[in-house]
C-alpha cells in the first residue's frame, strides 16, 4: 500500500490500484506550496467533516476527476448542490462495500460546518478494510472511549491520528487512542499547519518511543509503503 502525504490531514492511498484521497486541503496550505494539484488523480474522496482545512480542494478534485465522494449525508448533499455528480452518503455506524474494500463510518468528537457555514452533520472517522491493510482514519477528534470498540471489532495494521492539540487530540492522547485501537504504528496528522497546532517533533517522537509506538511524521509530498 502506497501512502502519499499532502499536508494537514490529506493523504492519497493507492489501494490495489484504486486511488483514495482523504480530506484534501492543499492549495491554501503554504506548507504544501510545492504540490501541483494537476498531478494528483483519485477515484474516491473521503471527507471526515466539512471544515475548510479538510475540504478546500474537494470540489476541484471531484469535478476534475469524476471521483466518488464518500462522506456523511449532509456533506454529500451540499456538494451535489454544487454540481458534483458522484456521491455516496453515509452516517455514523454505517458501512459501504467499494471496489477497494469496506468503509465503516465511525464516531469523531468534533464540531462540523461547511465552508459557507452550512450545518455539516456529524464529524466522523473511517475504518477501511482493504485487500492489503486495515486501518483507522480518525479525522479530527478528541480522545473517546468509542475507540475501544474499534480495537475490539477490527485488527488494525495502523492508524492515522491527529496530534496537533488545541482543536484535536495531542500526542499524549493519540498514544492512548493507539492503545484503545490496538495499533503500534501511528501516522500523525493535523499538526504544524497553523501556529495553534505546531508541535515539537523530537518530543513527540520520544513520547511515542517510550510507549513502544512507532510515530511516523511524514514530509509533505513524501510517499511511503506500508
UniProtKB/TrEMBL annotation:
InterPro entries: Metallo-B-lactamas (IPR001279), RibonucZ/Hydroxyglut_hydro (IPR036866), UPF0173 (IPR022877), UPF0173_UPF0282_UlaG_hydrolase (IPR050114)
Recorded GO MF terms: hydrolase activity
Claim: Plastid is one of the keywords in the record: no
SUPFAM superfamilies assigned to the protein according to its UniProt record, in alphabetical order: Metallo-hydrolase/oxidoreductase
Superkingdom: Bacteria
Keyword vocabulary terms for this entry: Hydrolase
UniProt domain Metallo-beta-lactamase: residue ranges: 7-190
Record NCBIfam families: PRK00685.1 (NF001911)
Assigned protein family: Belongs to the UPF0173 family.
PANTHER family: UPF0173 METAL-DEPENDENT HYDROLASE MJ1163, UPF0173 METAL-DEPENDENT HYDROLASE MJ1163-RELATED
Protein name listed in UniProt: UPF0173 metal-dependent hydrolase ACFQHR_17185
